[in-house]
């Protein structure tokens, strides 16, 4: 049993937790990870400020320092996520559970808000949300570019009983570091999704009768925006960093 975010991070650092973090430690802030070289850090920050829905910035590390210090949270970002992705010139080259060997002296890490953060409050309100990572889709909505960073918006989907859709909007509005309110509700084809049964990331969803598909901006978006980046490291989809604090 996971007793605290520090406990989860310790298990990840020891290689004993490599699973997704969805449904774990409800109420705590979870975050996506993007690491870029210092030479591109300002442009990536600019990309985030131009696209705050998919990229809500929570914390940024000093160049070359792998240790995050934020409030009561102090953690070595090279080991305390369950799983990572390493990119070279936009190509995926590794999916390790420890990035110590890939860390560069000029690396800058960004922690970006994640929708797992609001799933606990949704469940507490009686909205059925799975304890597994949600399906994620690439949309036809383009993000606003900055420097070499550009690409489509990705969204996570949750099927919400129709009579609770307004409640879901109201609750997620309170969590801007969980991507806030949905970017789309209803017909997925409007945002370029041909089939809900074929997500780009994550498992195919169950769509119960009388439910409404609701789509939130997703922190996997930067993983498609780094195609012109010589060096980048991100979280593996669904495998987040968990802070000590609650949002």
TrEMBL record:
Lyase found in the keyword field: yes
SUPFAM superfamilies from the UniProt entry: PSTPO5379-like
Species, as recorded: Actinomadura miaoliensis
Family annotation (InterPro entries): D-Glu_cyclase, Putative_hydro-lyase
Pfam families xref list: D-Glu_cyclase
Family according to the record: Belongs to the D-glutamate cyclase family.
Official protein name in the record: Hydro-lyase
Keyword annotations: Lyase
Biological classification of the source: Bacteria, Bacillati, Actinomycetota, Actinomycetes, Streptosporangiales
Gene3D superfamilies the record matches: PSTPO5379-like, PSTPO5379-like domain
